[in-house]
């Protein structure tokens, strides 16, 4: 390693170490030891071979000096050739050990990444929905990428570097002192010229790098949000392209300026240190030559000292900031452990049992619920806020009680924010009730296994999510072992078979991010096909036909008829046809059931349901285009009254009920 490489190494080490260090607890070290324990044998071999490599690195300068002495004293050619051969043998050994050490380092680091990533990923999957509604996805992904890689560096780079540098430093000092204590002391006096500028410039470059990283993160966030299908649409409809471009360009220019400035600061530093190192070599040769001429030093010793000089400066410079570098690397472990320390609110009991076979009833028994506060489900660093929101915990559901017998349909209607979706989310244990019980087939859902709960329940939401994958893979998410004919049968029953067969790639068509390459109705029917493929015994429909046009809504309703047939159903009603077919309608307001009954009995009661019904009927009439349509609507109402029908019973299937 020459002096210029030493300068670059010292700068990189101190700059990396300055990028943010903090104290960490002994508990963190114990947990790190737990992750390292499966790799301990490989780790020991890695440390041992690193030490041997350091010893060989010190041996080469000594042998080079012996060669010079042999030539100076005119020894036999055999001695010179023998020493040269030994140097070559050591070089081969160093190369071989370097390959083995690199393999051990890579396998240690990558093995640690595998363990950490899978542990964090599995843990995050067990977190409640509230965790994902609060957390910024990019910040969470960063824990699985940047911080895990930082934790890897603590093993593969920092730890090995400390061991190797200590071994090299001790051996080099012993050898240099044995050759010339005067030159060794001068070399140590010149050390601050390397260390102090490196630390100062390292802090400056670390600050520039942090600023550049912040700007890059901001550009990444802007691109992620603007380049998604809904984001791009919003910018085109309401954004200011010129302003968007100017903001992005300003950040990009600042990143460019930081890059140029960082490059020049590094170049100035390395040039200065290279000059100082050349002067240090001049001192070694000058003082060594003087001592050699006076008979106090062998010529070969001068060569050995010059070669050993870099092996002294490099480890000393690195070790001068080793504690900061170690803390900076290990702090990534703490950031990973922060996520692992968040306890999932939904946990499966050790003695959990499967949902009983056969038809399934649904029962809510005096259920109370309040959404958890942020401190129970999130981290300020994942939300990218200074402090967590302290709100939460207030009850949003109060004494919810009802029962759906096997094969029955229960509909939930009411104003927005009344608690309908919250009720639906308690059944598949997206959240757990705080009081009372939610039962399937007479068993509390908290006593059931998660796997059997997923098999028994199927849910379709108003914005049914699809992954950026093929139609086939999105369907197989429900039942991975499903055969090809079963996929087509589900698509046929969801009224999508003809459309998918008309596509050039058929089932292998990629639907795009969140399914945006499909229309709203097609996307919803595909989620229904996925539900049909799963064959659930209980179906939950959370406003599954909301925000669809009349044509799409009609197709989806046909698919829903297939989905609901013979199954127990909990439906958050938005369409009148769904409400009219329900065995029981629950009117939810303020987290309470204020009315219950069938469509006819609730209209006759002339309460909140009837009010919602009349409001919707009036809205539908107001939207009727033209005087003739209005007159026709009036005639239909008169005819209905004369025939004894309830007002509005003859409305079209796409009539909306506020829900």
Structural key phrases:
disordered C terminus, six-stranded mixed β-sheet, 64% helix, 659 residues, single chain, alpha/beta, 25 helices, four-stranded antiparallel β-sheet, ABC transporter transmembrane region fold, 9% strand, Rossmann fold
Average pLDDT level = 78
Major pleated sheet: 6 strands, mixed
* Total tally of structural domains: 2
Shape type: elongated
CATH class of the largest domain: Mainly Alpha
Q: What is the strand arrangement across the widest sheet?
A: 6-7-8-3-9-10
Give the full name of the CATH homologous superfamily of the largest domain.
ABC transporter type 1, transmembrane domain
Helix run count: 25
Strand count: 10
Stretches with pLDDT under 50, minimum 5 residues = 17-22, 623-659
Strand proportion = 5-15%
CATH architect. name of the largest domain: Up-down Bundle
User: What is the CATH T-level topology of the largest domain?
Assistant: ABC transporter transmembrane region fold
- Rounded to an integer in angstroms, the radius of gyration calculated over CA atoms is 36 Å
How is this fold's topology laid out?
Layout: H1 3-17, H2 26-36, H3 40-72, H4 77-125, H5 129-134, H6 137-179, H7 181-189, H8 191-227, H9 229-238, H10 241-293, H11 299-320, H12 322-340, E1 362-370, H13 374-377, H14 380-383, E2 395-404, E3 409-413, H15 420-426, E4 435-440, E5 443-444, H16 450-456, E6 457-461, H17 471-476, H18 484-493, H19 497-502, H20 520-534, E7 538-542, H21 550-564, E8 568-572, H22 576-580, E9 584-589, E10 592-597, H23 599-605, H24 608-622, H25 627-642
Parallel strand pairs: 3-8, 3-9, 6-7, 7-8
Antiparallel strand pairs: 1-2, 1-4, 4-5, 9-10
Helix pairs in contact: 1-8, 1-10, 1-11, 1-12, 3-4, 3-6, 3-11, 4-6, 6-7, 6-11, 6-12, 7-11, 8-10, 8-11, 10-11, 18-20, 20-21, 23-24
């Amino acid at each position: 390693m020459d002096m210029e490489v030493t300068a670059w190494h010292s700068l990189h080490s101190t700059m990396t170490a300055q990028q943010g260090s903090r104290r960490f607890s002994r508990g963190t070290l114990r947990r790190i030891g737990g992750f390292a324990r499966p790799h301990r044998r490989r780790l020991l071999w890695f440390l041992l071979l690193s030490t041997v490599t350091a010893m060989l690195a010190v041996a080469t300068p000594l042998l080079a000096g012996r060669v010079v002495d042999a030539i100076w004293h005119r020894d036999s050619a055999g001695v010179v050739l023998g020493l040269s051969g030994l140097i070559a043998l050591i070089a081969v050994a160093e190369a071989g050990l370097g390959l083995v050490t690199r393999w051990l380092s890579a396998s240690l680091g990558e093995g640690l990444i595998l363990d950490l990533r899978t542990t964090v990923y599995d843990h995050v999957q067990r977190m409640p929905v509230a965790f994902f509604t609060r957390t910024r996805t990019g910040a969470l992904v960063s824990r699985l990428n940047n911080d895990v890689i930082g934790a890897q560096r603590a093993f593969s780079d920092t730890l090995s570097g400390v061991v190797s540098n200590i071994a090299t430093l001790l051996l080099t000092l012993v050898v240099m002192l044995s050759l010339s204590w005067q030159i060794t002391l001068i070399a140590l006096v010149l050390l601050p010229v390397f260390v102090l500028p490196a630390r100062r410039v390292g802090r400056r470059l670390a600050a520039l790098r942090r600023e550049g990283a912040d700007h890059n993160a901001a550009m990444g966030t802007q691109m992620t949000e603007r380049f998604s299908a809904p984001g791009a649409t919003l910018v085109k409809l309401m954004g200011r392209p010129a302003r968007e471009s100017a903001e992005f360009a300003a950040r990009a220019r600042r990143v460019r300026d930081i890059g140029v400035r960082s490059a020049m600061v590094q170049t100035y530093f390395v040039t200065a240190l290279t000059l100082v190192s050349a002067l240090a070599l001049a001192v070694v040769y000058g003082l060594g030559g003087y001592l050699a001429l006076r008979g106090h030093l062998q010529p070969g010793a001068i060569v050995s000292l010059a070669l050993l000089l870099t092996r002294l400066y490099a480890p000393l410079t690195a070790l001068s900031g080793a504690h900061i570098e170690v803390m900076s690397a290990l702090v990534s472990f703490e950031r990973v452990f922060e996520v692992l320390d968040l306890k999932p609110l939904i946990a499966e009991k050790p003695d959990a049992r499967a949902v009983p076979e056969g038809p399934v009833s649904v029962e809510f028994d005096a259920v109370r619920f309040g959404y958890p506060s942020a401190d129970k489900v999130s981290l300020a660093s994942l939300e990218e806020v200074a402090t967590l929101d302290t709100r939460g915990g207030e009850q949003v559901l109060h004494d919810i009680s009802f029962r759906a017998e096997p094969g029955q349909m229960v509909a939930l209607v009411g104003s927005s924010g009344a608690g309908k979706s919250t009720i639906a989310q308690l059944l598949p244990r997206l959240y757990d009730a705080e009081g009372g019980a939610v039962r399937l087939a007479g068993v509390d859902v908290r006593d059931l296994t998660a796997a059997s709960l997923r098999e028994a329940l199927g849910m379709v939401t108003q914005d049914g999510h699809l992954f950026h994958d093929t139609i086939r893979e999105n369907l197989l998410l429900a039942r991975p072992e499903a055969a090809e004919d079963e996929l087509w049968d589900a698509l046929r029953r969801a009224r999508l078979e003809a459309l998918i067969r008309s596509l050039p790639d058929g089932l292998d068509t990629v639907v795009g991010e969140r399914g945006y390459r499909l229309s709203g109705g097609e996307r919803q029917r595909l989620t229904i096909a996925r539900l049909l493929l799963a064959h659930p015994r209980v179906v939950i429909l959370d406003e599954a036909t909301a925000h669809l046009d009349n044509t799409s809504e009609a197709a989806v309703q046909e698919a829903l008829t297939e989905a609901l047939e013979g199954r127990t159903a909990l439906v958050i009603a938005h369409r009148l046809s769904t409400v009219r077919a329900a065995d029981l309608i629950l009117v939810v307001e303020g987290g309470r059931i204020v009315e219950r009954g069938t469509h006819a009995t609730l209209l006759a009661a002339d309460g909140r349901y009837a009010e919602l019904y009349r409001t919707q009927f009036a809205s539908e009439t107001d939207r009727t285009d033209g005087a003739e349509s209005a007159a026709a609507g009036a005639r239909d109402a008169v005819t209905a009254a004369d025939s004894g029908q309830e007002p509005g019973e003859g409305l079209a299937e796409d009539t909306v009920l506020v829900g």
